[in-house]
Amino acid sequence: MKHFLIQFVAAKQRLNPRHEFSIVLLGVDAVLYQEFTSDMSKICEKLEVLHPTVHILDCNFDSLFSFLCQYIEESSSRDSSGYAYRGVLIYSRSNVVPTFTDELPTYLHLINNPHFVLDTLYLHSKASVSCDPQAVFDKLSDLTTGYCLECSSSYSNLLLHMATLMPHPQTRPKEQSDWRPVMLQ
Amino acid sequence: MDIAPVFKAQLETLTGNLKCQVCQLNSGCKPSLSKGADRFVVLVPCGSLQLRIMVLLDQQNPHHPPDFILDDTTLDYSSLSSVTWDVNDSMSLLRLIREILNKLQGTRDSILNYPNDVIQFECSIVRHIEGVQFSIVTSPNVEILISVPLEVTPSQLWLDLCGVDTEKPRLEVTYYPESISKTPSPTVSFSPSIAACFDSFSNKLPPWNSNTSIIEYMPRVSKLLLDTIENLLHRKAVILQIHATLENGTVEYDTTKWRYTSYMVQTTPLNLNLVTIKFGRDFPTSPPAIFLQSLPYTTKSGGPISVQLENIPWSPRWSPQEIASRLRLLLIERVELFNKTCAGQYH
User: Does B331 touch chain A (CB under 8 A)?
Assistant: First the structure.
């Protein structure tokens, strides 16, 4: 996953050096891990040392939405260049159905912000008696405003999903099924 | 939109006593709170010209004095010291507008009569151009700015790029009459809506020599602008044609200056590659730069693998359709080769 994130950041940076990246971690609450930067080396360095430290058995997104709302507002007020904001949520609490308050003002503010898109990539174990990925995916789909993708252990699926997440939200089709790579023949 | 009731008397007094036209009425409030317009433009004929004053009132706070914007200059109410704003006095707005006009006329006259041969010559030959503006700064040193609208011929090119409602760009030349050694400095200003397309345009202006006059400089700048617009539209046509030829897989592209575009391509389901095409300043004389980046493969240290394609067949005379078609053929050949190289050498 780290490999793909580094590839993703490197590819986007090459396309437009004005792109900036930030990393926010969600443990119990949302925490800023790396503030917006266009410095690839900083992002890669932070990604390299990132690893899970605790096993959390629940997930509430309210603090994440509140954090994102404020963070984006502060960032917009500092820089009037007209950035669009895109969150890629990588969710790997395989069997934890997330919760959030859909009437939370900060959540509503985020989803109604025309300059903000949230994509989700859900990484999970295979379905079993103790693991219901479908329920988790359904909940994640509810909060996602962009593309919602899922992957269990397939490398090829993960690769395809990273490719699917590469396009700019403002130029890609609304439906993720309408986008596909060009097959050169 | 009608004027908000609280300002109706002010506006009626203004139009009843001053030869002017009021237009572009709109509201600066949220729709749920708005009872009408509290912003508008006043057009006042001044000789062969028309002075344009944007008036910004606030119907939520009608006792706050208005702000005025004259083209790109915001006039602070406090500088109009002889007039007091009183929303209950229907003559307030008229008095403020009259004072602004007096100030503007005073500025124009002081520039036209400035005791400097070059300034007087330059002003005399442009004063009758529709839309010309003059301004003067006196501190710390005297600087005189002459601003003239630039024509783009054929005008259809401008419309194609910017649309009907976008104002033409303006050539702005700053003169330094108190400094003999300092040559006038020209820049070109654009409407905010399109400024990003031309953010480095002023850096490419022809040099201003000691015997250059603004009237002969203008057509040179217009020509440069025309070339810039033609190149931009050409790049746009090429990129849109590439989109159409490849049909899908678009990752992102530059919709301001049309300088780059990118696509996700594959030769097999897992051999995914990001193709980036960048159009340099010397396009179409030189071909675009084409980069490939592998998604599945990385270097031993985990970094991305990216190459720039060399020896690209090219002709500056190719049409956008020809460019797109040949690009597709080139990619079919080179991406396959790139993937084989990656598979043999990398992770």
Answer: yes
